[in-house]
Amino acid sequence: MSATVDSGVFPCYENQFKVDNKTIADMESFSVSIDNGVEEWTPFETEGWVRRLMTAKSMTISISGKRNIGDDGNDIIAGLAGANGTDAEKPFVWNLPDGSSITFTNAVISVTNIGTGDSTAAAPLEFEVMSNGKPTFTDAA
């Protein structure tokens, strides 16, 4: 279980992820991409300077680790490798080190690598969690 960070720097393992309320074992790294939709226009009164308005957001979390057969969370993700449509959607939670969380009600989960690699390597599990509508941001208690 992750401890809540009160202040200062923290190790990345303090971030924790759950799918269907199950922790996903043996994940090693993650990255987050936030895409922003920005509308631009140039009215006469700005004398050629562009005006902008943020009009859209999306978030993708790319997670990689090892395939752990028998772990509930790991098995749920691996089981989505062949899923399409709404079958590829699951509830997903990102618990941040400060005690806050981001909950995706129907995240689209795209498995990008499952069990491939060198004969002496531990089998990987890699996937992307993509927002599907606005997630719920919960502040630290």
Tell me the layout of helices and strands.
Elements: E1 16-19, E2 22-23, E3 27-41, E4 51-66, H1 72-78, E5 89-95, E6 101-114, E7 124-130, E8 136-138
Antiparallel strand pairs: 1-2, 1-5, 3-4, 4-7, 5-6, 6-7, 6-8
Oligomeric description of these chains: single chain
* Straight-line N-to-C gap: 16 Å
Q: Proportion of β residues?
A: over 45%
Q: Helical percent range?
A: under 10%
Shape: globular
| Radius of gyration computed on alpha carbons | 19 Å
How many discrete structural domains?
A: 1
Largest sheet: 8 strands, antiparallel
* Total of helices: 1
- Low-confidence runs of at least 5 consecutive residues: none
* Mean of residue pLDDT values: 95
User: What is the string of helix and strand elements?
Assistant: EEEEHEEEE
Question: What would you say this structure looks like, in words?
Answer:
This protein is mostly beta strands. Helix content is 5%, strand content 48%. It contains one helix and eight strands, in the order ββββαββββ. Strand 1 and strand 2 (22-23) form a beta hairpin. It is globular.
